[in-house]
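Record format v2
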Amino acid sequence: MQTDKVNIAIVDDHTLFRQGLAHLLTESNEINVLFDADNGADMIKKLPAYPLPDVILMDITMPVMNGYETTKWLKANHPGVNVLALSMFEEDTPIIGMLKSGAGGYMLKQSKAADLVNAIKGIASQSFYINELVSGKLLRNIQNNQPLKNAPIGLNPNELKFLELCCSDLTYKQIADMMNLSPHTIDNYREALFQKFEVKSRTGLVISALKNELIKI
Amino acid sequence: MQTDKVNIAIVDDHTLFRQGLAHLLTESNEINVLFDADNGADMIKKLPAYPLPDVILMDITMPVMNGYETTKWLKANHPGVNVLALSMFEEDTPIIGMLKSGAGGYMLKQSKAADLVNAIKGIASQSFYINELVSGKLLRNIQNNQPLKNAPIGLNPNELKFLELCCSDLTYKQIADMMNLSPHTIDNYREALFQKFEVKSRTGLVISALKNELIKI
DNA sequence: TTAAAAAAAGCTGATTTCACCCTATGCAGA
DNA sequence: TCTGCATAGGGTGAAATCAGCTTTTTTTAA
């Protein structure tokens, strides 16, 4: 019946995906899509105009305000709203990162629609939804009992800026100039990021950053 | 009326996107989605089971068989079927590349649904659909009258394999070992690809390959 | 079968990147 | 006040990467 429907919102920067998903979910008759938004900032702007959603489907990499920040904002300002992360990648970092930011579940865009509907219903009723993908990561996290990337998203604004400039044909020297910093300082950033991402080359860094949905190309 | 509907198929490896889009387009009442497929090989398998589509919406980067190959196969085996490329990027290379492969149009996944419906109807009736994105590229192609990347997709299997291995933490030496080639030969590939992509570093190469939808991470 | 083209392998040197070493400053908490 | 920590800056040397050119082998086409 109408009143039992789960009210959701969708935040993703690809219009066709977002609107397509809205139609797909609406057809399930168990979900009501209140609104959709292009990115976190857009969502914050639209939020007051609608009833508070039960669940928000959240993309991670988006322009202006990404999924990590937006989820943290939601938990600070509307702790009752549940967040279900939607991503293309199944790396440790974005999964743990989104959960730590406050998401109650993590689904791949390669999922089947029925599984997504289940996840939305689960998260609406229990505030979390642990699928195999997530439980596997959590289990390994415990079994290895080393903290296993539980704080890998801690990038300061300068490091993030550097990371973005890394994804280009620019040399480190050129990046240093663009950021008005000494090449040595840039080298510190490089060093720090190599350790955080456990990579040995700039290329590895770029690939990791993309898979961890920290940057967008 | 029913019989005027445009029959289409959707080929894309992200299930939620593909199915969402199918629902979205079905609602327009002008489009009938016959079937969808995970990649080119899957499409070829499913094609005989349905009436021949008027238009096929084609993603570019897909596992097993990508959009370029699949479009070429369609033009060779079912020249009457129109292909509309769907991509996240607006680089020259994939646009020109898909058009050369035989696509009749090119749309971004950031497009609005109404624009996509227009493109589908246009391509169904005229076999092509030239939006601003495509016409701009074509115009520049003529104005600069240098061939402007009209043959940038010409990678042999070894180069493609090398390109994929480049998107990692591996050193060139390790790549040479994995491909059972001398590091010097690898250096030749690197040199050739740097020229084709007009880049000066391995990082630039990786970013270009991703934007040109030649590889998938 | 011979010439041309392409692929593979090689060399050298300049530049960039990588890995470790260090110091100084400012700020928060014990 | 002292300590720890994060940020910023600096230096050195080894390794990897980049750029350009040459040679050999294989394939293709005339």
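The CA atoms of residues 170 and 176 of chain B lie 10 Å apart.
The beta strands of chain B are 6-11, 31-37, 55-59, 82-87, 105-108.
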